[in-house]
Each structure stands twice: as C-alpha cells, then as structure tokens.
Amino acid sequence: MKPPPFDYYAPASAAEALELLGRYGADARLLAGGQSLVPLLNFRLSAPAVIIDLNRATDLAYIKEETGRVRLGAMTRQRAIEFSPLVKSRLPLLAEATRWVGHLPTRTRGTVGGSLAHSDPAAEYPAVATALDAELVVRGPAGERVVPAAEFFLGLMTTALQPGEMLVEVRLPALASNSGWAFEEFSRRHGDFAIVGIAAMVTTERDRCRSARLAACGAGPVAVRLRGAEEILEQGGLGDLNINAAAARAAELVDPSADLHASVEYRRHLVHVLTRRALKRALERARGGGAAPLRS
Amino acid sequence: MAKWVGQPLKRVEDPRLLTGRGVFVADLPLKDPYAAAILRSPHAHARIRSIDASAALAARGVAGVITGADALAHTQPFAVGVQAPVKYYCLATDKARFVGEPVAVVIARDRYLAEDALELIQVEYEPLPAVVDPEDALKPGAPILHEAAGSNQACHREIVYGDVEGAFAAAAVVIRERFRFPKYSSTPIETYGVVAAYDAASGVLTITSNFMGPFILHALVARALGLAENRLRFVVPPEIGGSFGIKTSIFPYLAVMGLAAMRTGVTVRWIEDRREHLLASSSGVDRVAYRELAARDDGTILAMRTRWYDNVGGYVRSPEPGCTFRPVGNWVGPYRFANLAADAHVVLTNKSLTGPNRGYACGHLYFEIERMVDLLAQRLGMDPAEVRRRNFIQPGQFPYRTPSGGLYDSGDYPAAFERALEAAGYDKLLEEQKRARAAGRLYGVGLAVAVDPSVSNMGYITIALDPAVRARPEYLPKSGAIESATVKIDPLGKVTAILGTAPQGQGHQTIVAQIIADELGLAPGDITVVDEMDTFTRVWGISSGTYSSRFGSVGTSAAALAARKLKDKLVRLACALTEAPAESLVFADGRVMPRGGGSRGLTLKELAGRAHWNTQALPPGMEPALEATAVFGFPLADSPDAQDRVNSSNTYGFIAEVMAVEVDPETAEIKILRYVTVHDAGVIINPLIAEGQIAGGALHGLGGALWEELAYDSEGQFLSGSFIDYLVPSASQAPVIEVEHLATPSPFTTLGAKGLGEASSMTAPAAVANAVSDALAPLGIAITELPITPSRLWHLLDAARRRPR
Amino acid sequence: MAEPRKIRMTVNGQAREGWAEPRRLLADFLREDLGLTGTHIGCEHGICGACTVLLNGEAARSCLMLAVQADGAELMTIEGLARGGVLHPLQEAFWEHHGLQCGFCTPGMLMAAYDFLRVNPDPTEEEIREALSAVLCRCTGYQGIVRAVKAAADRMRSAP
Ligand code: FES
Ligand code: FES
Description:
The structure holds three protein chains of three kinds.
Chain A: E1 7-9, H1 14-24, E2 28-31, H2 37-42, E3 50-53, E4 63-66, E5 69-73, H3 78-82, H4 85-90, H5 92-98, H6 104-107, H7 112-118, H8 124-131, E6 135-140, E7 143-148, H9 149-152, E8 153-155, E9 158-159, E10 166-173, E11 179-186, E12 196-205, E13 208-217, E14 224-225, H10 227-236, H11 240-253, H12 264-286
Parallel strand pairs in A: 1-3, 2-3
Antiparallel strand pairs in A: 4-5, 5-10, 6-7, 6-10, 8-9, 11-12, 12-13, 13-14
Helix pairs in contact in A: 10-11, 11-12
Chain B: H1 14-18, E1 33-40, E2 46-52, H2 54-57, E3 62-67, H3 68-74, E4 95-96, E5 102-108, H4 111-118, E6 122-127, E7 153-161, H5 164-170, E8 173-181, E9 193-199, E10 204-209, H6 216-225, E11 232-235, H7 251-264, E12 267-271, H8 274-280, E13 286-295, E14 301-313, H9 322-325, E15 339-348, H10 362-380, H11 384-391, E16 400-401, E17 407-408, H12 413-424, H13 426-438, E18 442-456, H14 467-470, E19 482-489, E20 495-499, H15 508-520, E21 527-530, H16 551-578, E22 585-588, E23 591-594, E24 602-603, H17 604-613, E25 627-633, E26 649-663, E27 670-680, H18 687-707, E28 738-741, H19 764-776, H20 790-802
Parallel strand pairs in B: 1-12, 10-11, 14-15, 20-21, 27-28
Antiparallel strand pairs in B: 1-5, 2-4, 2-6, 3-5, 7-15, 8-13, 9-10, 9-12, 13-14, 16-17, 18-26, 19-20, 19-25, 22-23, 23-24, 26-27
Helix pairs in contact in B: 6-7, 10-11, 10-19, 12-13, 15-16, 18-19
Chain C: E1 5-11, E2 14-20, H1 26-33, E3 52-55, E4 58-61, E5 74-76, H2 89-96, H3 106-119, H4 125-132, H5 143-158
Parallel strand pairs in C: 1-5
Antiparallel strand pairs in C: 1-2, 3-4, 3-5
One FE2/S2 (inorganic) cluster sits between chains C (100-106, 137-140) and B (189, 242, 505).
C-alpha cells in the first residue's frame, strides 16, 4: 500500500496554488489535510499525475469573526476548530460536530475545507454546513464566487467545484440568541464515519419556533437538508408531539443506501430517532439549559 | 518455596518495547534487501489463461517475477490433512479460488517500485461462477472448486459416542436450533513479515519471519520447496506483534518467498500490508450448525446431536480441518452427558483460507452449546444457572474421561461457577432486570461456561481421516505435545535460559525467570531468558511453537524441569565440596546451604566458578558444563483410537462468565454493563500477565460477536478490505472485564499450571448472545447468528414488534 | 518534480536529513531512511494509529503524511519519549499496569496518550477511552492501557 508516483508542488499561497491548478488542470489533485486523499493514494484508488499540496499555503488557515458570521479558511485544521474559543462560543454546532470527526491525531491534520470539498456522504462537516446554510467561497480562473451549501454538495463525492477551482473559505452564521444546537451521531466505533448523523439548530421566540435547521449525513449520497421537517417545527412549534412528527418526516425525506453496516430501513429509522434526540437537546439549550450533556 | 511464582511481576520485556527498541521482523537490519509485492486475484473463481510479466520484468528496479508456472516447476503442493485430492500450491497455478489469492510475486528494489511493477503484469482470467455459502456449495450443480475432488466436500465424518438414538427416544424434551457463526480474524496489528535469503554455496535457505509454530509446518515448507529439513532454517525475530493463532497460517508465504529468494538470488523481504492481511491471511471458519439436545424434564441433558458445515475457503490449508476437530475431546464442554453425535462437513468455497484463530473452534462450539442450554432452561422455565448446576461434571470425577476421549485433568466447575455468580451479584442483576423490564427497558443477563483446552495433542487432526485409513499398516500415527528448555549457569553464577518458543506478547522471559528463580533460589533479575526460535540451534519437535495456549503448561514445565536437572548437578557438586548430605541442601538467596543454617554454604557463584574453572576436580563421573536441557512431553497425548476417541488437548481449564447488557430499544445498540469472568487455569504464575491474556481474549470474542466480520457478497466479492469496514473494537467499545481465579492445579504439569491464552475468546460470544437473548426474551427474540450488529438486531426488534402477539 | 528531494527535519531534538521521492510516506522515511523503527505501521490508511508521531508537538498519523510535508518540521517519535534514560511517566505507568503485551501498538498508543494528556490533563475514564480509540490494540482489551493512562495522568498532575 504505497502511493503511485506523482509530481509534487507545495505552493506558499492560495494564489500560487491556483496558478498551478490552472497549469495542470484535471491531472492535478489538491492535497489538504490528507486524511482521506492519502489513504486513497495508498490503496492506489487515486493516481493523480500531480499533487498540489496546500499545507504550506498559510493564507488559507484562519478563523475570523465578522458581524453575524464566522469565516474559516479552507486549510483551518479541525484541531484548531476544536480548541478555538471563538468557534466554541459562536459556532457551537460546528464545535460539537468536530468531536465526531475522526480522532484527535487525524484532526491535527484534517481541515475544514478538505472535508467539505471531499463531500463524503457520511462526513459530519457537510451536514453542519448544509444545516446552517453555509456559504462556500470558491476561487478559480474567473475570480471568486460564493456558493450556498445547498448548491455546493451535488452528489456522491461531487461538489460544485469546477476544474481549476478551489474552495478557499467557508462562512457560517454565528449563533443567534435564543438558539440551541445539537449534533447527534450513531456510529459503530468512536471516530468512524457516521452510520447516521443529524445536525440541528433551533431558534425560539417565546414559545414558538422561529427557525429550525436540520441536516443529515449518512442518509443519502450527500448531506441532506431536512426542510420538510423544519417546516413542521416552524409551523407547529417545539412540543414533544410536534418534534416527533418532524422526526418522522425527516425519515421520509432521506434516501439512504445499504452497506455492510446498515440497511436502508435501519438508516431511515435512525434518522427518525436521532432527529428527535437532536431536537430535544437543541431545544433544551435554546431554553437556556446551555450545559445539556453532549450525548444523550 | 514459591517466592516468585504467583507474583504480579512487571515484565522484563517492557522497557525495550516502551522505548521503541523492540526488534520486529520489519525492523531487522538487512544487507541489500529487495522488496516483494504480490499480485492477487480480483476474482472469486477464475481460470488463469495466461500471465504476461514482461513489462513488469522490464520495469525500473525489478529483479524478478514469480508466477504459478514457477510454483508448478519448482515446488510441490503442501500436504493437506484430508483425503480429498485438493492440490494447494504456494501460488495459484490453474485457477484462482478466492479474491486475494496470490497469483504472482514481484521482487524489486523497494516496495514502491514493486507495487508499480504489479500494475504492469497482464493476467488473462476466465471468470467462473462462485459459491460462498457452505450449504450451497454442497448442493448439486454448485460450482466445483477442485475438479479432481469431484465435490466441494473436503472431508465428511459422522461420529457417534454412546447411545444417542436411545437418549433422544427417552428424552422428555428435545430442542433443535440452527446457528450461524461468522468468519472473523484476530488481525494482529503487526501483519505478516518474511525475509528469505538463499545461500547457494551451502544450499541453505534462511527464512526469518513472525511465524510462531507449530513447527510441523517447517517440514511442510521444506517438502514443498524440495529442501532437506537441515537446509531450511527458520528464524524468529525477538518480537512478534501479536498473532492469536493467525500467524501460523503465514507458512505458504514462507514457501513463496523462499522460492523467490532461490529463483532470484537476492534477499527478499515481504511485509504484508493491511489490505492483503484482510483479504488473504487467515481467519476462523464460518459455520452453519444444526444442533439438537435431548433432556429430562428436570433439566438433565441426556445427549446432543450436531451437524456442522465448516467453510474452509478455497483450499484446505494445514492445520485445517482443525476448525472441526481441534476440540473433539471437549465436545461435551463441562457437562456430564454421555451421548454425542457429530456429523461434520468440511466445505470448500470461494472465500479466503482459514486456520487457527484464538480459541480455535471453541468459540463456535460454546456458542452452540451454551445457547442450547439457555434454550433448554427457557423451555423448562428454569433458571439457566440451575440447569448448568445440574449438568456439571463434579469435582470428585477428575481426572474425567469424556465420551469423545478427552481426559480432563482437574477442576471444580460448581465452585468456579458459584464464584462467578457471586462476584457478579447474579441475584441482584436479576432483580435489576425485573425493575428494568417493568420500566420498559431491555436488560439481559447471560451466562456462559466452558472447558478451556490447551496444548493440543497433534494426534487430534487425524480424526479427519476415516478410522479405516488410520488402521492401514502404512499409516503413520500422529501424537504428542512437547516443549524444550535449556538452562545454564555461567562462571559468575548467573543463569541463562534458552527456549524454543516464539512468543507474541505473552511475556515468556518474565515467566521463565520467575520459575527458575524459585527453582534455584535466585532473583528473577539474575536470569536472562532467550526466546528467539531458530530451528538450527534450538531443541525442538514438530509440535513446538507458541500456539494452542501451550506455554502455560508445556513451556513452564520444560523450564522447571531443566532447572531441576541442573539443580541436581549443583547438589552433587555441593555435596562433594561441603560433604553435606544432598537431602539437607536448600537453594535460597543465591546460595546452596544446609537446611536449618549452621554453615553459610556456598554461593552459586562459588559453586559455578569451581565447576567451570576446575573441571578436573568435578566429582567422578560428572559431565562437565553447568547446563541442562529438558524436554517435557505429555504422557497422555495418544493418537485416536478406532472409536475416534482422542485426548485432543493436554490440560483443560474452566471458564465461567456472567454478563449484563442493555439494548437501546430505539437504536438496538448493545451496551455491556457488567462482564465477570472466573478462570481455573491451575496455578497462576504471573497474575498480571494472566489478566492481560484474559482481557485481550475476551475482547477478541466480543469483536467476533458484535463487530468484526470478513464479509463477502454472494458472488464472492470481498467487502471488508480495510479497517474502515472491518471493525476492530477500540477502547471506547471495550467493556471493563472483572477477572477472578480459582485454581485447581493440573496433576499433569510440573508446576500445576494450565494454558489460558485463548480463554474468554471462546466464551464471550456465547455470553453476549445469551445476555442479548435474555434482554429480548420478552419480545420472543433468540440470537442464533453472529455478529449481532445494531442494524440486524433492529430488524429483529422491528419484526417482533410488528408480530401480532 | 517526482525526483527525490532533500528533506530536513528535527527528530527527537536532533537535526536529521535524507532524500525521498515526494510519494514516500513519512512513516517509511522515519523507519527506513532515518532508522527509527520504533514507529510502527499497522494499516497505512489512518485507522490503527500504530504510526502516530508528534508533529510540531501534536499527534498525527505518519502513514497519512508524505515525508516532504514534514520538511522543516519538528518531530518526536517513541525513541524520544524517555529522556536521558529516564522513562516518561506514561512509559512507567504502562510498565506498571501491564499496558502492553506484544508492544506493537505501544509506540502509537504512547504518542497519542502524550498528546491527549497535554490537552486534557485530568480526564475521566470515558474521555480516556474515547481518546485512546484513536489507536487499536489487539492484545490487551485496553484494560491495562486505560489504567495506565489514568495513573500517568494522576502522577503527572501531582508532579511539579
Ligand atoms: S499505520 Fe498509520 S494509522 Fe495505521
Ligand atoms: S500490545 Fe499488542 S497490539 Fe497492543
């Protein structure tokens, strides 16, 4: 299990990387944290002629707060996210999901941009981005464009990135007041990709649900937004019965496939169970019980 | 007398391993090594029409390519343990019979280049229909793997002990069930590794590898390669990174890398990668079992009948079909019933090959027996603990001869069982269950008991042959289980012990130092233990090796006997020097002195100095040199008799376990709340090491029961080719295991110790299956198949909830 | 650009260098080129953790990095954990509590535990198990390892 030969470049900036990408086009692959790509190379399931290593492009690693949102450079390490006080207070859903992303030693290298651009159907970050309507900033030969998460994740490991383009930043809305969040996941082992994961964010207004945001991973070819379930909450509120109705609806909205570890029906069932659990925990936090246990 | 034996001493092996100084096979410094990489079949079943290696041969850094044609021309097929004409070469010759079967080997300057060249080999395959299920493989019209054999049945034996028909006819209750036991492995974190170097001048092929025995396989490899045994040297490096039986099955690679070294003339180094390991190293068999139990209505078991379909994959690789016959002597487990019938089918299918895996065949056996006992209890409305109590072999019955020929050496099964119930607070757990059930929770308590066989008697394997074959005059009977040790004292009075074992983390150096320290009145620190096996320099026999939990009984016996032999010599020497009577001498604190004091006696250093420096002054008739070798052989390891009875192991421990679980009614996730295990492995030499073995074994058993499976689709494509899909349990799944011991010393070993290396790997699947079944009993669910994954379990729950009740 | 290039790094406090093709894995570079065979390889796809080393002070999989990527970095491997012949408290605790059998997972386990205890010096047993799930061990059932890490944490907190 050794990588096939390739040419290797380690540009010092995003601009240099883009230039290389322009030069090598489809022959090149971008190497971010390497926690998914290097295994593919080792298994020789990927054999690019050129590797463009972004790890020395220091201008791509940052966490910045702006009014109402947080911007993360694509090469921001998952580990930096995990230990960032800013993320903890402004993007607590991302912080909570990060604990489910691999293990500390893989988060040392793994990056937010790598995870999003890889778009593994069972990965946690695409679900968080989808739930929160993240904006993905994509740079290419024609300059920069901003792609909403809903249009970024297209299918099984496919994104809206065009040849010659790279993901440079992700923008996430900061936690609003009266909001609660939860990331629920079922996996066989800690640190594995999810069998099913649910990202949830609810904002309350007195007894009403002002907005609900729900997305699932592991339940389709790509992270899915569970809009139909959100509507049930936004219309009918956050009572137990309604939460259950929303969870049941969520299970209808997904299109999971079967594999060695879980059948279609079981995954669908888990979407129901985990959506309910996530919503309950999120609601508790929204109501000020901010210290709800991480796992129910 | 036992000052050190029984102490939880820290291991002498650890400092080097903790600082990165251990030397594993991949760490050996080599002179000008080449790397091997193996091309493997992508097909489950395919005829190999042609292989074109010319482009690979021309590639950068390539020294040679070996294919099936070389295997045909220069090697013999390995001997197989069945009568069916199954030809098993070290490389595929005519057909590939499972995904991952080695088809060609590239030898290149390094592994990167070797893998590059693999991509250049052109193989023309003609894909054939495949079969993976052992019952399907026996149906008419199934694809045949080995045409010469005419069917996929490698071996079939119907064996009856006692009056099974009569017992079933007289029974008040008969229980029948079908079970499926999955194919799983122990996947040591260190994969296989081989270094082969051929010296054409002397004609000696030296193979260094993490092979751990049995060394009978040395003879198989020599024969396959056409080498005299004294021209084939097997060396084992100082460390092996775990094996759990799996590294026994490295031997075909020893042959193929030996062949490569002989053909290319270079030193060949092959380090298996994880993908290869999962695809094609080894595993236990997957088994379909039909079992019947006959009992009286008071819970007394009268008889059992079983039909097995054991799936050995594409070939029969030695020591298979041990998967079926290794536990023959303990086929009745810890129970007294006298009537037993086994209808055993060993089946070839398009899956990877099997072999010993921790607990070799016993996980399968006790999963069936212990589930049946629980089903009996359920049928009779009895406490499963009570049913077991009624059927145990009693302490007064030892040594106990089982109907299938096993000779259980010692034990007190009721006492160990009660100890387990008490340690777990069985009654309290049952009360907790009542409360939990009332609250709608799925809470279960499971029991499992087992006889833990160790030190297999080589003869068991011949049960696979018809007794008529074994009766032929030209037939060479097989039997025995031996181990050797050499102990010597240097001129300054320090001791070196040399073993012929190949440990994989069991701490032989520590344990032997403890034993010899006691025997010679020294401290363990005075003793250096060398355990790097080398067939050219060690004393060994074909049953040698570190497998089948042998060390705890035969290894320790040999070490103690060698020390005693040497001690006898020291006594004679001391008698001659001090004129004290032999009976009065004691060994303590590095001295030999008369009992009760008086004289200071002599230090070992003084004694050894005299013996080494002044050999002319030795007592008349004494052989010079302070050195003794002892070979311990079990006296009761005969070959099978005409009725297929055989004492298949040499010591028999006992295990009793209690497990409490809770099943999440929504996700079907199983949580192990308590896991108590009581072991009788005779005298425990180092409790720290013993606990480590038990905890590790338990997690292997749980892994197979809950997470791990080498899975195939119905076309024979392999689905578990990485650690992403083959789920090795991690620290966050592992339960806390509470270990207790109850020792009934073995009368047959020098120190009274028995093996315990496989231990709970054979009971954990039964314990968890019983506990989960108990949790789900209110829903009418009984576990009969493993692994119990949440997805599968949820489907059972879902179906049960839909059933009209 | 696929040609071997010179790579320099600091390993266990010493400046080291060697030549490697870009595709060469850091794990192979450490083991084969620098002779630091204490770092083990168990899967080459990031799951087993046997190859875990400290990269600029943080645990990382050396089978998922190219040697070129570590050019200029500071590494610590198992060979650098004991200082001046004195075992690190983690090593002591693993020895004391039988936290290893074959020792093959041990280097990765120690590196991961070292990093973990720096970010969480006073962990609960559950946190220890979660952190250690980054490294697979097939021998111990993790029982001795969990105990050892707990003991080491206690000892390191009470030490000055
Ligand atoms: S060898 Fe790197 S994680 Fe397994
Ligand atoms: S001690 Fe052997 S793998 Fe952990």
